[in-house]
Specification:
Protein name: Putative thymidine phosphorylase
Pfam family, one: Glycos_transf_3
Distance between the termini: 76 Å
Number of strands: 18
Number of helices: 18
CATH topology of the largest domain: Pyrimidine Nucleoside Phosphorylase, Chain A, domain 2
EC number: 2.4.2.4
Largest sheet: 6 strands, mixed, barrel
Keywords: Glycosyltransferase, Transferase
CATH architecture of the largest domain: 3-Layer(aba) Sandwich
Catalytic activity: thymidine + phosphate = 2-deoxy-alpha-D-ribose 1-phosphate + thymine
Shape: globular
Number of domains: 4
Strand content: 15-25%
CATH superfamily of the largest domain: Nucleoside phosphorylase/phosphoribosyltransferase catalytic domain
CATH class of the largest domain: Alpha Beta
Amino acid sequence: MHAADPVRSPAPGTCLPVRRAGIDTYRQPVLYLRRGCVVCRAEGFAALTRVRVRCGGRDIVALLNVVTGDWLGEGEAALSDAAWQALDPAPGALAAFAHAEPPESTTVVRAKVFGARLVEADFTAVLEDVLASRLSDIELAAFVTACAGDRMDLDESVALTRAMISAGEQIDWGQGPVLDKHCVGGLPGNRTTPIVVSIVAALGHLIPKTSSRAITSPAGTADVMATMTKVDLDIGTLRRVVEREGGCLASGGSMRLSPADDLMIQVERPLDFDSDGQMAASIMSKKAAAGSTHVLIDIPVGSTAKVRTTSAADAIARRLAFVGEAVGLRVGIHVSDGRQPVGRGIGPALEAHDVLSVLRNAAGAPEDLRERSLDVAGAVLDLLPGTTPGSGRMHARDVLRSGAALAKFMAICEAQGGFHEPGSAPFTRPCPARLGGRVACINNRQLARVAKLAGAPHDAAAGVTCRLREGDRIEPGAPLFEVHAATRGELEYALEYALAHPDILVVAPDAP
């Protein structure tokens, strides 16, 4: 029990039977009580009151929603899905209710909102309350927002990183370099990780890659890999896979590697932003917790990418290198072209098809994805001690051409639970060009938006296929891109947005 959250004995009559409301409130536990019920009167509860709910030896803090309709009786309480899963009450169980005192870390949140500089102990207090569900989503969102922009300095990023590492499990792979890579994101289809891991592991190096699900994009590496193999591994299974194959392609969210960061990401997702200070802490805490020693960071730069200018890339690179080195990592920076999408598919299964075509050396495989993967794999290999700069790419190319990377990828998938081909969506329709000419520019953000409106990433087969690149010629009425969806409704919804935004792919008419 947390010292800041004392629970007094409930007043007589404040125990009620609980049932599942069947309402998804994301990660926020919510309690539902009828207005005027005995508990509300006895405790003086009102809407959005923080309520301590105790049932069967477990307790949680939930936000109260007051029910004015007749779907809930006055003599019962209902719990949201998140609250029900946390309490796991037995059939017919009674729950006790009492006011929950604000956790100590709310003072830290308030201080940061008003511009205070935080130290590691402050971040630790917040993360402890996050992991114990003592902070509401509203409070956590306030904290995330207060740390965004330029409101977190380098030392604060280091302090947050160390607090995140301490809050979870840590893996030790023993002696020797442990390689890793990460892309800061913002570039649709840039799915180099499965190819890079396969190349590096095929060369005999250790690369235990854990990746996240999508935060603000149509697909994360874990979403893509989940269309081909099992990714939700526990630490024991991950270790066995890596010891057997030298690498893995797993979801970090299924392990307690920087678990507080995973919860913060769930709040960042609906806010649709990812600030530099927290991004650096998120990346480096997970790399350190996963036992990595040498990490390459890929930073795509483009006017519609996450990082839009070279100066912004330099600032992010400095922060990532500073934080990484502070927690014992050797960090390499790879700045890449982020002006337009990579590959053809945007969405989990569509990107998986691209990855497989590159690994299989298939005719017509996306050349840009292949070349980027070789660039990144080469840069990762160049981090190894004693390596001749530039030699990594040559080794990477040879391994990919020989089929050894494909064999390693399949072996990793088999070790993780077996390989299966990614699927395809039942509904597909092109978005036609209004004008003929040449493609002048592609808006990464809006194209990704179309893929998300089509259902990606929650529907793995949904998304967008875009074969055009800047400078390509197109005839009037020819497809700019194709939308893939699981239902006709999602297909129409995505196409309606695409047709209303003709600047997603700007076509410049041919000069007379």
